[in-house]
Amino acid sequence: MAPPLEHGEHIPGTTRRSLLAGVAALGALGAAGCSRVATASTTGGGELLDRLRAAGVVRLGIAGEIPFGYIDKNGELTGEAPELAKVIFKRLGVDRVQPVPTEFGSLIPGLNSQQFDVVAAGMYVTPERCEQVIFADPDYQMLDSFIVRKGNPKGLHNYKDVVAKKAKFATGTGYAEIGYAVEAGYKESDILIVPDQVAGLNAVEAGRVDVFAGTALTTREVVKKSAKAEATKAFTPIVGGKPHTDGGAFAFRRTETNLRDAFNAELRKLKESGELLRVLKPFGFTQAEMTDLTAKELCGG
Questions:
Q1: Which domain of life does the protein's organism represent (predicted)?
Q2: What are 218-240's pLDDT values in tens digits?
Q3: Strand 246-252 and strand 134-135: pairing?
Q4: Does residue 157 contact residue 233 with C-beta atoms inside 8 Å?
Q5: Strand ranges for 39-151 from DSSP E
Q6: Residues 120, 81: contact at Cβ < 8 Å?
Q7: For 185-294, where are the alpha helices, taking DSSP H only?
Q8: pLDDT value, residue 121
């Protein structure tokens, strides 16, 4: 965490960023996020990590999206990215994290205008975003999956199946899956656009559509209590004629390569030890979402 497209703009591989549960609680913390953060570094590689250690706190830009980064019903900061941030920054000598809630589209501008120190929102790494910020290596990868009726009666396993079998297709507002379906040959005007995966599940259960497309994580979570629908096995969409896998990561100001590199070093240790999965598992992530993708690969080399 994918939403804006299933993790941003309407281009392949972007990040879905709808503001889901937790948004209401963000307002209560909004004022706390208005104070200044450490000023921009001017020396080579940046000095922000030293300043964060001295201050004892790092401010995280979040977008109120479950399961990526949000405020829970008790007013506590949680989500896969904030929980991972707590672990890594503790190892880097920064004891506390503080949320700065904002809309997803304001995360990169907010980072670059120093409203917070790092983006911790499960943001997909895309070439367009790599021109504005630098990314750590992805802490998760994300494949797609479908919500279908129990037993998958139409045998829908990928976007080509949806086209070939003339299935009634739905996905979420601004989701990247719109582009994936269109690339497979589905007419965009025939796609039913619904607000989110819950509305997609309802559409499938009611028989209004045959299939709803979303990320593997969100589809498998939303069908858990459904007696009428199930999630298909995760699959890789095709973009530009090639299999495409999205990856979500922390973002930093372009001047702060020292902080990014130190973060990456700790992230690699967590991956090698298996602790990364332990941190992310409570938010629905599985071994299938673990990845060795690099930011360089997703930025386009």
A1: Bacteria
A2: 999 999 999 999 999 999 999 88
A3: antiparallel
A4: yes
A5: 57-62, 70-71, 77-78, 96-101, 118-124, 134-135, 140-142, 144-149
A6: yes
A7: 197-205, 216-222, 257-273, 275-280
A8: 94
pLDDT < 50 regions, the chain = 1-37
Counted residue by residue, the chain has a size of 301
**CA 243-81-133 angle, 5° bins:** 70
SS3 133: coil
Burial state string for 94-117 with b = 16 or more CB within 10 A and e = fewer than 16: beebbbbbbebeebbebbeeebbb
Task: Measure the CA–CA gap between 3 and 8, rounded to whole angstroms.
Answer: 6
Q: 274: phi > 0 → left, psi -120 to 50 → alpha, else beta; which?
A: left
pLDDT in tens, 83-100: 999 999 999 999 999 999
Q: Which pLDDT does position 20 carry in this prediction?
A: 35
Residues 34-90 pLDDT 10s: 444 455 555 679 999 999 999 999 999 999 888 999 999 999 999 999 999 999 999
| Token pair for 290 | 């673990």
Cα–Cα dist 98/112, whole Å: 18
- Closest by alpha carbon to 106, among 61, 136, 72? 61
Q: What angle do CA 275, 291, 159 make, to 5 degrees?
A: 135
- pLDDT attached to residue 3: 40
**Distance, CA of 289 to CA of 291 (rounded, Å):** 6
**Residue entry with tokens 């009666």:** 153
